[in-house]
Design a protein that fits this description.
It contains nine helices and 13 strands. By secondary structure, it is of the alpha/beta class. The chain has two domains: 143 residues, Rossmann fold; 116 residues, Elongation Factor Tu (Ef-tu), domain 3 (Beta Barrel), CATH 2.40.30.30. Strand 10 and strand 11 form a beta hairpin.
Length: 292
């Protein structure tokens, strides 16, 4: 095996790949170019919090995260199995993994970065060991938006509450989920509003009714999405159902991406189907007609 090219390395979980993460990778690219180093990004599989037993819904899947990181014009994205490094002390992680395995000459981390067994390593420790081992350290300050720090936990909380438009301001993009279109009960078509049902691996599913965009085969279609239990029909399993405006094609088994624009309302129960139909008409008008 050839020795890796000398590199500048950025490390993080990058869940959501929000504006703060994007700034960190931008700084990595600038530093790597300035010092003529390869730009490498290290993240972990699984997420360390999940590895240690915390039940935490991740904003994006590993596949989605990989594609976003790979789009950043870096030389390599490394999904490091966390089980192989979880036992390493902070010093061992630097001296036995980063420096020899990645030929690290420069390191870029966020100001709240913690690492090593027991999370004993921080930026103060990195400053000391960088001087001792002769590598450059760049610590990127946290970004603030809307009177708060941009963080994965804040974005996750906003998404769970359904505040998808504010979450988009921190993500730097509309939140999206990917999935396969599957057959449903056909109730939407009977009501005059045919829907696609999405089977998704995404873990964060905002509940309620939303203005959305469906991305299919590089085209975007306006839509209204309901995520919930459909209480009018007394359903017990949460589903993702989307009515695509002026669209009547069968796309079962196709992969689509669903972008969330903003929340229209909470999900609630209607006594009759006619009341539900009237509300869906209002939802469509509110989402796309009154906005024009």
């Amino acid at each position: 095996m050839h020795d890796p090219l000398p590199s500048a390395v950025a490390i993080g979980n990058f869940d959501g790949f929000h504006l703060g993460h994007q700034e960190l990778i931008r700084r990595l690219r600038v530093l790597a170019q300035k010092r003529e180093l390869a730009a490498r990004v290290v993240t972990f599989r699984p997420n360390p919090k999940v590895y240690f037993g915390r039940s935490i819904p991740l904003i994006f899947t590993d596949e989605q995260k990989a594609r976003m990181l790979e789009s950043q014009k870096v030389d390599e994205v490394i999904f490091q199995p966390f089980s192989q490094v979880a036992h390493l002390s902070a010093k061992e992680f630097v001296c036995r993994f980063l420096i020899p395995r990645l030929s690290m000459r420069a390191l870029v981390v966020g100001e709240n970065f913690r690492f090593g067994a027991g999370r004993t390593g921080d930026t103060d420790f990195l400053q000391r060991i960088a001087f001792d081992k002769g590598f450059h350290l760049e610590v990127v300050p946290s970004l603030t938006r809307n009177k708060g720090r941009v963080s994965s936990s804040r974005i996750r909380e906003l998404l769970i509450k359904g505040v998808v438009d504010e979450a988009a301001q921190l993500l730097g993009r509309h939140y999206f989920i990917d999935g396969i279109v599957v057959s449903g009960a056909g109730r939407g078509r009977k009501l005059g509003f045919p829907t696609i049902n999405l089977n998704t691996e995404n873990q964060v599913l905002p509940q309620g009714v939303f203005a959305t965009r469906v991305e299919w085969k590089d085209q975007f279609y306006p839509a209204v999405t309901n995520i919930g239990l459909s209480p009018t029909f007394s359903r017990s399993i949460r589903k993702v159902e989307t009515h695509i405006i002026d669209f009547d094609r069968q796309i079962y088994h196709n992969r689509v991406r669903l972008h969330f624009l903003y929340k229209l309302r909470d999900e609630f129960r209607f006594d009759t189907a006619s009341e539900l139909i009237a509300q869906i008409r209002r939802d469509v008008r509110k989402a796309f007609i009154d906005k024009v």
